[in-house]
Fold:
Amino acid sequence: MAEIARPVRYRAAVPVYRYQTAPDVPPVSVLRFDPHAPPGHGRRHIHDFPVLIYVERAEREMSAGQPYPARDGDAYVVAAGMVVDPAMLGGVAAGRGVFFDPAALGGDGQAPWPSWRSHPLLFPFLHGIPGGLLRLYVPPERQSAWSTTIAAIETELADRAEGYRQAALAHLTLLLVDVARLAADIVGDLRRSNETLLAEVFDVIERRFAEPLSLRDVADGIGVTPGYLTTLVRRRTGRTVVDWITEHRMVRARRLLIETDLPVAEVARRVGLPDPGYFARVFRQSNGATPREWRQNAARHVTATAPATMIA
Structure:
């Protein structure tokens, strides 16, 4: 990691890494994992930029002290600003980390956190899960495409032919589109992981997010007490039921703002927050931008990345 990122400060004795910005440093970098050298040199650390880790092959036999066995096709979304626990990355036999300067997706120069939070494809990197990692699963039919896309980024960076930066970012954009889609499919991923009760929780949220919905409503919907549900969800995800209700509403709101021309007040009503003022406050708190700013930024990003996407 020293080649593309360096510690710029410490927070409670934990080093904080920043993506290097220089004319000879590409906006995206790929690092292959050495199974004998844990990510981050085995130490807790923080990135102030997004990182995506893809597990192409997991170890078939887990050694002692690896409580979070990896699977072929696991994708770890590393939250910027969160303390990363390398112990959660145990069992990776072959994998690659994709590091990138988020400003490269929408403009020139480095955009400090949290100003780049409003990019439509970067919302999965805003999670607050303890350990700093959101674990997603790439379906078998998509795993080859992920490996091919990451390899294409590596090739562009190695060859540095004319237009390599735009081509590398085009491949990165396609990867981030997949990440955003996988992050939205929480219920399906939980069911595949045999987290049946949690899947029921998110199923209730999915069906009822557009109406008034509370912790007690969700608990009643799956037949458990609010106290038990609170403990279960916090232990499994590091977040509360209300957090997830809000997150689901924000996912839908972001989609409606990007994919439709509906007035903000109508978007608010459709996601279960009929008070436009309250909706705007919640949206800004969750996304770092007002609904109107998000829509405007999304339109600019689509315009800016359209030629690069065509290259891919």
About this structure: The first helix runs from residue 140 to 159. Residues 256 and 262 are 7 Å apart (CA to CA).
